[in-house]
Amino acid sequence: MSESGPANPARRTLLSGFVAVAASQLAACGGGGGSSGTGTTVQTPPATGATATDLPVVPLVQGTVDGSGTRVFSLQVGAGTTTFRAGIATRTLGYNGALLGPALHLRKGERVRIDVQNSLTESTTVHWHGLDVPAEADGGPHQVIAPGGQWSANFTVANPASTCWYHPHTHGATGRQVVSGLAGLLVIDDPAIGSTGLPNNWGVDDVALVLQDKRFDSSGQIDYTLTANDLQVGYTGDVLLVNGAVAPIFKAPQQWVRLRLLNGCNSRTLSLRLAGNLPLSQVANEAGLLAQPVVRNSVTLVPGERAEVLVNLGTASLGQDIALYASYAATGMGMGSGGSQGEVAAMTIRVDKLAQVGAMTAVPASLPAASAITAPAGATARTIRLDGGMMGSPFTLNGRSFDIARIDMRVPAATTEVWTFTNTTMMAHPMHVHGVRMSILTRNGVAPRVEEQGLRDTFSVDSMETVRVAVRTADTPSASPLMFHCHILEHEDAGMMGQFTTA
Ligand SMILES: [Cu+2]
Question: How many CB atoms within 10 Å of residue 147?
């Protein structure tokens, strides 16, 4: 990162006038769960009578390095209001602000302390999604921060260069707290590998996009009243936000740009593409760089998953608008195979300035990817069966709902095992494991596609699918439980989660 992005004090007023546009934005997409999707393609109409919203740039913060060389960050979890609709103050939650949070810039090998102050009137936790940290610093359901309380996470950054994120993991309240606005990014660089040549001018040619859907009630407040359908397939909103803004415009230079994409939705799987199917050169999955870029027309992300893509705007003309479309893949949406397939313009890229000096001129042929995890012969095997969900009953893992007092698996530290996720249900579930490094070995017996290789932390297990994963546990034993769970937050909150220790 060559510079820190600007803070965004204007965010609270950025969104005025756009909800009317957005109200019907996702209307044709349905709420999931049905098999009667029309397949209609919906495009957001141009806003009239309103000034287009610039994309809010997520602030990239560096923290401060103390006398011992530890990089220290402070996060205050608080409540505020955000203006999504003109004249209406919507109650939201945020880190160091009213909505969302800053991107914390971490460097591999560096000691870090993150001090969290909970200024809410309810308990919360802060989980570092994707970070390979000691179980005590993980921020899962056991590291509760009471109202008015403080908590500090101490760790040495062990992850390779990647884009991770942080969010609450408050058992039974994760879905509501996330949709209320609690989510932020972790941007990890590895000084040891030097320059990758990838765009790194934050907010200019290296841009983070937090994609989340929300539903609003008639008074303009975030509606987290869960219907029977929400409980079954997960909460879905009818407004898609990018960095907290509806259909914003990203004013981009006429050159290659890097987009760091986070699907921060509670349950929606997003399939993303650019107008004209402008190629996306994917350079990273959610856990780090790929060994070589993969050129794709679209990138599909399950909830919690990230990807980094390069887009060549050097061939676009100045003033050209290029829409970023999001559609809702059937996986994770419906109980059957006929999920809705609507598509909305999530954002517009407007090429409005000449290329920056030193802009990347070609995609690197190869990248310094971290090594995948491989399993030795005779590795201990475990099976995690995704089940339940019949006749309105909760989804479960190995037939059991989460019990915070029960340890489901005791796994040795510093060991590589093979975990087999078998989905016996009628819908896809995005699975996430805390505090390990892992790689996919096979999907239904077949080696994973290139973009699914390397390290992973969040991946789909489709209906009736079996995914075998090599799992490397932490080097240091700990009795503090780590989670493995579905990242459809309503499934997680309802108990589609288990815990293991490395004691
Ligand atoms: Cu699930």
Answer: 12
